[in-house]
Amino acid sequence: MQDVAGVKAVAVVLMASLIGSAVFAEVPAPAAPEDAPAVAAETVAPPAILQEAPPQETPPQEAPPPEPTPPPTSEPPQKPEPPREPPPTRPSLRPRDFWRDVKVEAKRYVADSYAIVTAPAHWAAPDWERFGGVVLVVGGLMLADKKIDQEMQQNRSHFTDRVSNATTRFGGGLGPQVGVGFLLTGYVIRDWNVREIGRETLEAGFLAGLLGRVFKQGFGRERPFESNGETRFRFGSSHDSFPSGHATEAFSVASVIAMRSKGWVLPTVAYAAATLVCFDRVNDHVHFASDVVAGAVLGTAIGRFIVARHRRAREEKPTAEFDVVPIPGGLAARLTF
What we know:
The protein is mainly alpha-helical and 337 residues long. The chain has 10 helices and 2 strands. It is 57% helix and 4% strand.
């Protein structure tokens, strides 16, 4: 009985930690104004004579002040950089604007795919430490997978099955449908941030699922109903238990929604739904606990990576500069923007 109680505690702590990490994680506020002005071309105001002086009394020219050195960035640039995009504006369905969005989307998928694959080459020491922590957690769960699986099946009921039937689709076909819903809504109400949630949700789900499929085939782990709860890997085989594709899809969608949403309500709902998908897959005896945790980490990492990349691509904003420069016979005012 003590073992059963311990396993119950492990399962409860696992699910609570997933929900807790989603609720208390820092969610950056979206930086996407609805109507941002277009970048103006560089113009120089015509010289305006402020003071006339005889040629022999021309004041000495002053060297322009040195430009401030930009602060060092904490994240190295990733190659290739995201494609240049126009400033955030209200979405338009005019054919010219729509095809421009399609071209940018195709470039995004190519550039972001390459950046994801090559990301470990740019990792710093803290990144490798986080990766090592994930490996330890997932590896530790594998040691308890059999007990957790047995405990879940012993406590499986009609209620848990009904919950699974109602929510497991968030990690399947309903995930892309959520992205399409945000995308179409953004175009209909002409809201840039809502449309961006749809774009990034679809991209994160697609790329996370593609990478998860590669890992599945590489590890070749047998599902619980195939191995009777035992942990067995047949590398390169058709067995595809690790990581969970439903958990990967659900958390990639939830992470994009969380990073692009204001407040805590929508992020909490998104992460809670994704956590339910993890519970469903273990309840249905098609995945181990370590499978769904690995999928949750993979999906979250891909979703946050994509949103952060696209935000960095828009960090360069136009600035205006006002200078007073000497000219023969006086001074001139120059406005550059």
